[in-house]
Every structure is written in C-alpha cells, then in structure tokens.
Amino acid sequence: MPRVTYENRLQDLINNPMISTRDKEFAGSLLSYYKRRRTLTSGRVRCVKQLEERYSPEACKALQDLRDNAEESSVVREVKELIGRCERASWDLGFAESILEQLLAGRSISEKQMSVIEKVKSRNSPKDVADRDFWISGWEGSENQKKFEVMMGYYAHNKPYFSTIVAGYNISKSLGEPYVPSIRIFNKVTDGGYAKKVLEEAFRMPKFPAGSAVRIRRSDRMPMKIKGKAAAVINTDAPIVSAAKGSKRYQVVIIGESTPIFVEERDLLTKKIS
After folding, report:
1. For 24-59, what is each residue's pLDDT tens digit?
2. Both 220 and 197 in a single domain?
3. Rounded-to-5 percentages of helix, strand, coil across the chain
4. 134 is a domain residue
5. Is the dihedral of CA 82, 84, 86, 91 positive or negative?
6. What distance in Å separates the CA atoms of residue 11 and residue 14, rounded to the nearest whole number?
7. Which long-range contacts (CB under 8 A, 24 or more apart) does 80-83 make?
8. Which CB contacts under 8 angstroms, 24+ apart, belong to 184-189?
9. For the chain, what is the domain count?
C-alpha cells in the first residue's frame, strides 16, 4: 500500500465537496508549502489535523444534515434570490455568496451582516436588474462606450488610477470580448473634473485635420531635435494622456523622417506655405 503523505491528505481535503471556500484556499496554501519544502512545521501539521477533524466522514454527514435543513429556510431562499440579482464579479455578489456558504454550514448571521444584506438588497432590486440589462443591451457602439474607451486610454497612461478597471478592460480587449462596466463604475470613471477635460478634447473637431501641414512648436515641452520641424498629420484620434486644453493627441511624421511620433495639439502650429 503506497505511503500516505501530507500531499495526499491535503489533496483529499481540497477535493472534499463539503469544504468551505476559505478552508479550501487554506488547504491549498498548506499544500503549496509542502510541495516546496517537502515537510510541514508543527503548527501547519496541527492545522492539517484540525481540517481533517472538521471534514471527517462524521462531521461531513452532520454538515450535510444542517445544509438539508438550511435549504428549507426562508433566509437561505432569500439570499439565493439576492445572488441571482447581483452583478457578476461585484462585491455584492461575493458578499451574498459568503453569507449563503455561512448559512449552509449551519452558522447564523450577525446583526451587522444582516444590515449589510439589506444594503445589498437595496442596490440589487428587480428594477436595478432591469436597468442593468437595459444598460448592457445598449452598450455596443454607444456614445457611452466611446467615452469609456477614451478614459481607459487616458488612465492606462496615468497609473495607478483605476488600475484594476483598466486591467480588466485590457484583458477583455485582448480576448476579443466586450467589456461592459457597471453604471456606477462608468460614472466614476467619466464624471470627474479631469475626465470632463479629457472627453472634451477627445470629441471636439481637430484644429489640424489628417493631411495638414504643421510645424512643431519651439516650446520647452518638445525635444530639441524636433523643435521647429515641419510635419504632416497622419491621424487625430490617438489616445489622450493629459487633461489640459489643447491635449488632443495627434500622430504626425516629421518631414524627411519615416517613423511617426505622437504630439498634442498645443505642440503644433500651422505651417506657413512659402
């Protein structure tokens, strides 16, 4: 008979369908430690034994009985309905799922948790669900989508603001999947003072349309080697990276060069035709 190691014991715990998410993650961390060291400290050994006692066949049977009884309770049904109304990947959903797990484990919820549940309910009423569905169905190709994408380009260059949202947006984009923010996140990203300046620059008509002949200003902002150089505008919709008047971003090519560069409208002058 093969020797039973801590790796086997921890893997059995992880595979146990009755184990809670928290305990499963903890057992996973113990397993990772064991795989690296091939041993466990005395404290970690004690934790393994406690987990095995908590999820012994007798304890799992008692836990299943509790769950069967809990399934019939009105509170459990109410929390399940709430989970169905919560927005995907939201804090509200994670909280409601943790409460359900707690109830199914036979543990009661505190007054403070009940208060938070009421707040989660108020944010996820049937009307809220209908509003979210309407928001999602009208997202693709909308003015709101264009605004959000402009701000994602801006915040990608101005870290760490909204870095988690930008990361999620970029992952979805790389997978070719639509990223639809919640109404709350959209408002948070697009309603600030800086955001309004960026959006104003992004959607106004360019002073120098594509094909225009321009000259680079001799300002302190520009590298010495391109100051005063003549250039041609290639496009006028490059991602905006600063919130200032004249920050509309252009892609231009210096006359005599082959590699395009990015400049802002405030860095350009009309080239006088000689």
Report:
1. 999 999 999 999 999 999 999 999 999 999 889 988
2. no
3. 55, 10, 35
4. no
5. positive
6. 5
7. 82/117, 82/120, 82/121, 82/124
8. 186/144, 186/148, 188/162, 189/148, 189/151, 189/152, 189/155, 189/162, 189/165
9. 4
Domain holding 23, by residue range, is: 6-55
| Pairwise CA distance, residues 198 & 149, whole Å | 12
* Residues 212, 205: Cα–Cα separation, whole Å: 14
Residue 71 lies in a domain: no
pTM > 0.85: no
CA dist 156 → 180, 206, 221, 239 (Å): 17, 23, 21, 10
264: which DSSP letter? E
Task: Report the distance separating Cα 94 and Cα 97, nearest Å.
Answer: 5
Bridge partners (DSSP) of residue 213 are: 232
User: Domain boundary residue among 66, 94, 125?
Assistant: 125
Type of residue found at 40: L
